[in-house]
Amino acid sequence: MAAGSEASVPQTLAAGAGGEEEGKHGKPFTPEKAKEIIMSLQQPAVFCNMVFDWPARHWTAEHLTEVLGGKQIRFRMGLQRTDTAPQFETTCSYVDATLEEFLTWNCEQSSLSGPFADYDHSKFWAYADYKYFVNLFEDKTDVFQEVMWSDFGFPGRNGQESTLWIGSLGAHTPCHLDSYGCNLVFQVQGRKIWHLFPPEDTPFLYPTRIPYEESSVFSKVNVVNPDLKRFPQFQKAQRHVVTLSPGQVLFVPRHWWHYVESIDPVTVSINSWIELEEDHLARVEEAITRVLVCALKTAEDPRNPRAWLNPTEVEEISHEVNCHYLNGAVSAFLEHHRASRETEGQALQTNGKHRKKEELHMCNHVEVEQTCSPNVNKHRATKQKAVDPFGPNLVAVTLLTEEPPSERGGVVEGDGKGFVDKDGEGFGQLHGTKWEQVPSRGETVSAEHVASSSTAAVTAALVTTDDLLDCVVNPQVTRMVAQLLLQGRNL
Ligand SMILES: O=C(O)CCC(=O)C(=O)O
């Protein structure tokens, strides 16, 4: 594929074709090689021919209807229209229904009775999104084994650490980045279009924490129909687009922004967020955000958290509990660095080498960003340079530089839906709870750790409200906040 064009992902390649590292069952990459790619690659890419033997490849919505029996699932209902405001979860309505009722509404294009009766199929989409397997399949844990992330080098990782997404045509997730981990997404049924933007584009995406959801930073821009008068910098963003088809697995690197939309009548996908070293610091940042957002928004309007709190957030939002969480995250961060320092020290001793004492010191708060993270990135970038992993079974998602073709769907990307022309006019149109039930995304700081308010860790608080305020109202920080507040206002 030529660099600079949209990603085109072949769908019918013979298993193993072109793969130098062919693994068991004719897969193009061994688990070790796949993991090496995932841990080093800095751009999104699509793995092909890696999941053809997973039992979960048969998880169509019809199949899941049988597995789930009459279980009630919550569907997010959104409008098919596209205006320039993103459809955040706080602005959607919600329907509790079975998968069977969803399929009936979706197939018959209407429902005269039942939970979807108020939703005209031509005007609405429905999305059972972000459903943790552990909640969906509580009494059928056998199905966890049908998802086998071990093939990507993560032994033991299966449905237990995965989420399921079932949607109708047009169902979408607004543009956001995930604070933790990187992501593997298996497309099971139907196709989804992914619009991705690299982390360095963050200022052009106009990030916001309202609506508030732990671990999701939303963009104020509707990236498929942007208001360029309000968000002029968005024109500088580097849009990468790919259509993910059944059998393919998309790798989304850490902190890549993404907007995702179903472009077939029924879509099913499964994903798993893979924890990374950097998550320890991200958890501290997330906890600080939570304390501040919850405190200020509750002070503003103590009666109506639903206006700013994403419906996926079902955790306690009291200041006390949030401070416990912050302390848990800080302890975990410190503990992790202590442990790495010990390991590093042991490794040096074993090698009989000496190293300056300060080199072994844990990164302090300032150094964290200035030295630690870039080192991790430098390491990753070097690794990426050394190996070019692309080929027919690993297709890079590249920058969209050309006008998108007008036809919707197909193998080649850019279906014309929701892009903007140079004048900014649109043409065409286009997370269970994280702390409590899902250790993988808040692993080191479990809910028990956070919620058991009388534990020793909490009693001996490392960080008090005053400590936090001291940092947040530090003149350097308030200067930056003032600049951000004033930016984009008509002065
Ligand atoms: O499939 C979707 O609608 C969104 C998926 C997503 O945001 C994710 O996997 O991080």
UniProtKB/TrEMBL annotation:
<comment type="subunit">
    <text>Interacts with CRYAB and HSPB1.</text>
</comment>
<keyword id="KW-0963">Cytoplasm</keyword>
<protein>
    <recommendedName>
        <fullName>HSPB1-associated protein 1</fullName>
    </recommendedName>
</protein>
<comment type="function">
    <text>May play a role in cellular stress response.</text>
</comment>
<feature type="region of interest" description="Disordered">
    <location>
        <begin position="1"/>
        <end position="29"/>
    </location>
</feature>
<dbReference type="InterPro" id="IPR013296">
    <property type="entry name" value="HSPB1-associated_protein_1"/>
</dbReference>
<dbReference type="Pfam" id="PF13621">
    <property type="entry name" value="Cupin_8"/>
</dbReference>
<dbReference type="InterPro" id="IPR003347">
    <property type="entry name" value="JmjC_dom"/>
</dbReference>
<dbReference type="GO" id="GO:0005737">
    <property type="term" value="C:cytoplasm"/>
</dbReference>
<dbReference type="InterPro" id="IPR041667">
    <property type="entry name" value="Cupin_8"/>
</dbReference>
<feature type="domain" description="JmjC">
    <location>
        <begin position="125"/>
        <end position="289"/>
    </location>
</feature>
